[in-house]
Amino acid sequence: MFDKNAKPSPRRQQQLDRYKQLVERMSPNSDMGKGLLRAFWVGGTICTLGQALQEIGKAWLGMNNTAASTFCSTVLVFLTALLTGLGVWDKIGQYAGAGAFVPISGFANAMVSPAMEFRREGLVLGLGAKLFTIAGPVLVWGVSASVIVGIIYAIWPW
Fold first, then answer.
1. How far is CA 126 from CA 49, 111, 112, 120, 121, in A?
2. How confident is the model at residue 49 (pLDDT cuts 50, 70, 90)?
3. What is the pTM of this model?
């Protein structure tokens, strides 16, 4: 059996050392301060846009808070999906890192990206199948949880 705590042989240790040097040489240096600033301002801009959409929904479209929140989420998901399809969102993600993917826009990007990669395989087997690679587990567990809660409620109504 393999023992993880055993010391590697001298030859293996040389290989590991060479690999470590190669990784250090090839890995780009990261400027954490610049990355944090970019993530902060891009994520903040997305959230500010979302808040503006909510206020527009309430003030100009006469929506209540729930409808305005739904309107905001729908518009943000649509815009992110559109920009992902046009190839713009990848550039924003490379620039801003987690700031572009933490808000609701990350979910929309995760839905559309696999579909864009496999669209050349056709509508059903490529686009249709890959569109739900991320949403599928969410839907399965969401429906399963609702069935379990429904059964519990049917047995013990509160």
1. 33, 13, 12, 7, 4
2. very high
3. 0.65
